[in-house]
Design goal:
Blueprint: E1 2-5, E2 10-16, E3 30-36, H1 38-48, E4 53-59, H2 61-73, E5 77-82, E6 88-94, E7 100-103, H3 112-125, E8 131-135, H4 146-156, E9 160-164, H5 167-173, E10 180-181, H6 185-192, E11 196-198, H7 199-212, E12 217-220, E13 226-230, E14 233-238, H8 250-260, H9 265-279, E15 299-301, E16 309-314
Helix pairs in contact: 1-8, 3-4, 4-5, 6-7, 8-9
Keywords: ATP-binding, Kinase, Nucleotide-binding, Transferase
InterPro entries: 1-PFruKinase, PfkB_dom, Ribokinase-like, Tagatose/fructose_Pkinase
Domain Carbohydrate kinase PfkB: 17-290
Length: 315
Amino acid sequence: MILTVTPNPSLDRTYEVPALDRGEVVRATAERMDPGGKGVNVSRAVAAAGAPTLAVLPLGGAPGALVAELLDAQGISVAPVPVAGQTRSNIAVAEPDGTLTKINAPGPELTSEEAESLLSVVGERSAGAAWVACCGSLPRGLAPSWYAELVARAHAAGARIALDTSGPALLAALRERPDVVKPNAEELAEAVGRPLATVGDAVKAAEELRDLGAHAVLASLGADGQLLVDGSGAWFATAPVDTVRSNVGAGDSSLAGFLIAGGTGPRALASAVAHGAAAVQLPGSAMPTPQDLALEAVTLMSHVPLDRALTEPAP
């Protein structure tokens, strides 16, 4: 079972439009509503693959109740932590060329008691989990060290930890030695304090995160592919994408694919890339099912192309 933790979940509304014209009335051609947040998306992708998952998240107000209802309708078990503030609502506008405009609300401010309740529930429910995926930004009221405490408690319960966050929260959590961290190129550059222009730059940055405590680094390099660096070496993988419809939740789907396949080694990397490539070809934050995957199309390389320039260098 894969347990996910989403400290700042959301109710996500996605609209597909012919074009986004500022100041004009824009008529959507399609719309959808999904439970949102990075950990929630991981649970949705795990459930779409037919594997068991439990989503732990703080929920408040009518939007929070709707998030729980939508997750239940998708067959996802929820361990809600009641909070006084209202769960945030986010809006995404998708254009035909793949351009996505997102408006993310800040979300509620958690009290110290609510923050501790969330930690306690994770500690209690981690005992039966193969993996605990801790994902997303921290809401107001939670210090950057909160993820470090969560990693420590989940490890104490015997679970392996996958951490997908950034900035001070990521750096603070590394001291507790998460089993895998999943930055994108921009987050990886931010963590090491310098730009990344090549795949080799990303490998060096990932090795630095391992020196700081991460057992493994699964780095998403956007359209260029994904990189896995652990104690046994480095692997690089790519997959073709015909049409990008939406990248919302694609990284989360990728992390789910990695964990479903065991969470270690090149086989898990190939699964991560296949899930990410499938997700970007689906509308909104829809998650791929096994029928959407094309594992045979993944190119896996043990000889990492260090000199390959990144299509989108990370500043």
